[in-house]
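In this supplementary section we document a worked example of the pipeline. Step one takes a protein sequence of length 328 as its only input; no multiple sequence alignment statistics are reported here. Step two produces a three-dimensional model, which step three serialises into structure tokens for compact storage. The input and output of this example are shown verbatim.
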Amino acid sequence: MKKILITGGAGFIGYHLARHLLKDKNNILVIVDNLQRGKMDADFSALLKDQRVKFIEADLTEPKFYQMLDKDFRHVYHLAAINGTKLFYEMPQEVLRINVLSLIYILEWIRILAKKPKLCFTSSNEAYASALAAFGKLPMPTPEKVPLVIDDPYNARWSYASTKLVGELFVIHYAKAYNFPAVIVRPHNFYGPRAGFEHVIPEFLLRIFKKADPFPINGADDTRSFCYIDDAVKAMQLLMDSKKTDSQPVETVHIGATDEIKILGLAKKLFTIAGWQPKKLDIKSSPAGSVKRRLADISKIKKLVGWEPETSLEKGLKETLNWYKKQI
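The serialised model returned by step three reads:
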């Protein structure tokens, strides 16, 4: 049996990762979450009915918690963090405090264990995203080896990005100093059911359900690629199970889709899937600090574990719309 710890397991990625890992009958899961952003909703409650799942409600920034935590985990997926662009602006100090402290305490806990687990740290494309604004160029598709850049530390937008940038440094050097395996993954716009309401696809869906007309679209000409959550968590599991990511230095790996689309094109695709069209669009500028383009180079993960996304954007959007429609 393989015992696995998932921090932030009640959140979007954590919930879907747990569901995916439970497909292997040899896996036992311990999920930790403070339920600040993750929810004890019907989906998560149903997940916890599985006898192989244990849930602990806890604050990962509280050092005393780690004294009570089990010491026999094979894998640790550290997903816990404050995310959501709106929150970056509203509470940057808490984004910084919680994201950095929780990672430091996880690493300190691993450091003193006699038998050390393998760690997966979820970074973000935000760690390098402002390189385009700062230097006027960024390779597209973007490989892993690009400068990590915060172009304006006074812009609260980059509070989250800075925690992921410094987080990568922590993981790389702790893993080397204390000899444990780890992998850093940079998610690129994961989407799907149960993703909350603070990202572009759920926000668009809410406006569609409310028949907002004129329909607001921020940064219509910005481009993104969107990776369906089922594909994304499979990629994470493959990287953690692979011996190719056990060696030093720590591997940093992009996870994302390859089909780039403008935000305006995304909105139009959702209009078609929903069977509704607004009479007028209200095109607005992107928020200060927003990135013009994002497209991951995923050649590294293909080489390491043979992964590439399987779910088309149209299929993933249909699944996502159907889930949110039931909730609303």
